[in-house]
Specification:
Elements (H helix, E strand, L loop, with lengths): L2 E4 L2 E4 H11 L17 H9 L5 E2 L12 H11 L13 H8 L5 H7 L4 E2 L17 E2 L5 E2 L32 H4 L11 H4 L1 H12 L4 E5 L8 E7 L2 E7 L5 E5 L14 E2 L3 E3 L6 E3 L4 E3 L19 E7 L2 E5 L7 H4 L3 H4 L9 E10 L3 H9 L4 H4 L3 H4 L5 E3 L6 E6 L27 E6 L3 E5 L4 E10 L2 E10 L9 H28 L8 H19 L31 H4 L2
Antiparallel strand pairs: 1-2, 3-4, 5-6, 7-16, 8-9, 8-11, 9-10, 10-15, 12-13, 13-14, 15-16, 17-23, 18-19, 19-20, 20-21, 21-22, 22-23
Helix pairs in contact: 1-4, 8-15, 11-14
Length: about 575
């Protein structure tokens, strides 16, 4: 029996057939539309658009009556009740499919299985026209299923990496030419970079496998004896602090036969011990003992078998790691941020809340959404009362980050941001401003005079991101004192999650050619995209170009923003 790869798992044809049987069940088997009798949603959409010739990117088979994919998705979800643990002998085919698709919407999969519905009617025939994503018949007449986003005939998205992305070399400079243009002519990223699993895999290797990546908070490893287990680009690392205060990172694999040393965060009493053959290591990764190895002497030097080191560091509340020894040191990576934000004394702030959220969107959409305030008035009407569009200014010096600032932080209509006590010793600008930093690649940092809202982005798949939110205050606060401010942020974040998940669906199902950036509001995205392009194309990050800073005194460098009435101290010195 043949097998079909779906999200990295091989599915037998019979499993796909059962999935399709539910997804493509004729509309007459479902509840009729409450207002339109037996009309399908496809019929209703045709009437609204008045475009009967428009190709639709729905999933159908040759025996399917055209229908609405969202209603089919609801139908199959009602049936997904089998056990969800892979390897369980009694799970049904639908249960297996549910496990495989638990991080992907079925309607997203529908767009990727390359079956399409034509809005001018489906005649029940199989076509070999690849533009319609129909199955190609193999030598025994069975459909050969392929994955990817397909388009109607002549769709220009295929020419801009929005459609079939087979053969695109994402490490080629030429692919990134529209991205690297000046912001006045640059284009957004191709949809495939948000939706294509192959692009995601390359990105994991060349971006997260080489950049300085946030893996937690400094507070998690503040004391000796705590061992953290983190994953970057598919590699597991250990992070410890020794009794002398030294911070250490190591690959999570024994130097004997490569066994995983720890599965999850835990406390250790000065020793890391392999569970397999009891090799032991100090908290700095040095090999301490190899039981019974001396019975037949070897010539190995002890230092040759220490745990493989990984660079780790802290900055303010952040805990960061870098797998690639050729990447510049973190001090170079962050540019002027250490000086720019020195007045906040970020390394003294205390966490008061943390939670993780799964977002069904690519990690880049989440950070891009944070970096621009073009959407502010429409997506965040309440946030716009305390962070007004007109009060946003440039906040970018040299470094691998994008930034903006709000001055002043307003409390005229809502004071959610101002209810906690502010930090001591802030200068005139820091005391009235909000600083919003996106540190490449996966840190979102909002610093207010009285609290920090930190978000760490961990890419799980091309369409799934785990976002860990941490709130910190300058000093420990009374229990529940932070709740109003926390809830305000969670409300804002929920609005962001809704819009980026919509963006992901559009990029996956629609995959239209990328559009232009707004120079006034989206210049940081152009800066971010260039950093991404450099990481994807450079053979080594040893000489990665660090973006230069803005000159806030130059109206041209402000890209339409006004001059900050309370400029940061570091910008006054320019």
């Amino acid at each position: 029996m043949g097998e079909i790869p779906v999200t990295g798992v091989l599915l037998p044809h019979q499993l796909v057939a059962e999935l399709l049987d539910v997804l493509t069940r004729p509309t007459r088997d479902m509840s009729p539309h409450p207002l339109k009798g037996q009309q399908t949603m496809t019929d209703i959409r045709r009437q609204r658009r008045g475009s009967p010739d428009r190709h639709r990117q729905h999933l159908v088979t040759t025996r399917c009556v055209p229908g609405d994919i969202e209603r089919r998705e609801c139908d199959i979800r009602r049936r997904l009740t089998a056990p969800k643990t892979l390897g369980t002998s009694n799970r049904s085919p639908i249960g297996q499919i549910d496990e495989i698709l638990r991080h992907e919407t079925l309607s997203g999969l529908a767009a990727r299985l390359r079956y399409q519905e034509r809005s001018d009617g489906h005649d029940g025939s199989v076509t070999d026209d690849p533009h319609f994503g129909a199955p190609v018949l193999d030598t025994v007449g069975e459909p050969v299923w392929t994955l990817g986003i397909s388009h109607g005939r002549g769709d220009p998205a295929a020419e801009t990496h929005g459609g079939d992305v087979t053969g695109i070399d994402w490490t080629d400079d030429a692919v990134w030419e529209p991205t690297r243009r000046p912001v006045t002519t640059a284009m957004c990223l191709p949809p495939a970079l948000y939706a294509d699993p192959d692009a995601f895999a390359i990105e994991q290797d060349r971006v997260f496998g080489r950049a300085w990546v946030c893996v937690g908070t400094a507070a998690e490893v503040a004391e000796p004896g705590r061992l953290l287990v983190r994953e970057i680009a598919g590699r597991s690392i250990l992070i410890t602090r020794d009794v002398d205060g030294g911070l250490h990172g190591m690959i999570n694999a024994c130097r004997h036969r490569g066994t995983e040393l720890a599965e999850a965060d835990c406390a250790v009493a000065g020793t890391i011990r392999c569970p397999y053959h009891r090799w032991t290591y100090a908290l700095d990764g040095r090999l301490r003992s190899t039981p019974l190895f001396d019975q037949v002497p070897r010539t190995d030097e002890p230092g040759d078998l220490d745990l493989v080191p990984v660079r780790v560091t802290t900055w303010g509340p952040l805990l960061l790691a870098c797998l690639d020894p050729d990447t510049p040191p973190f001090e170079t990576w962050i540019g002027d941020l250490h000086e720019r934000m020195a007045g906040y004394r970020l390394d003294t702030w205390t966490p008061c809340h943390e939670q993780a959220l799964d977002i069904h969107a690519n990690w880049k959409l989440v950070t891009e959404n944070f970096q621009e305030y073009y959407h502010l008035g429409w997506v965040h009407p309440e946030l716009a009362k305390v962070s007004r569009v007109a009060d946003h200014y440039r906040y970018q010096g040299p470094g691998m980050y994008c930034g903006q600032t709000t001055t002043p932080v307003s409390g005229d209509e809502r004071d959610d941001w101002l209810r906690l006590p502010a930090a001591d010793g802030l200068d005139a600008s820091d005391a009235v401003s909000g600083r919003f930093i996106a540190l490449f690649p996966n840190v979102i940092l909002s610093v207010l005079p009285n609290h920090i809202w930190l978000m760490r982005l961990d890419p799980i798949a091309s369409g799934l991101t785990r976002e860990t939110c941490t709130m910190l205050t300058p000093e420990p606060v009374e229990p529940d004192a932070h709740i109003d401010t926390r809830d305000f942020w969670l409300s804002v974040n929920a609005e962001d999650i809704d819009i980026v998940e919509r963006a992901q669906r559009g990029l996956t199902r629609g995959a239209v050619p990328p559009g232009p950036l707004s120079p006034r509001f989206e210049e940081p995205l152009n800066r971010f995209h260039r950093m991404l392009a450099d990481c994807m194309t450079l053979d080594s990050l040893a000489d990665i170009p660090i973006p230069a800073g803005d000159d806030p005194s130059d109206p041209g460098a402000r890209w339409g923003a006004a001059e900050n009435p309370t400029p940061p101290t570091i910008d006054l010195a320019r």
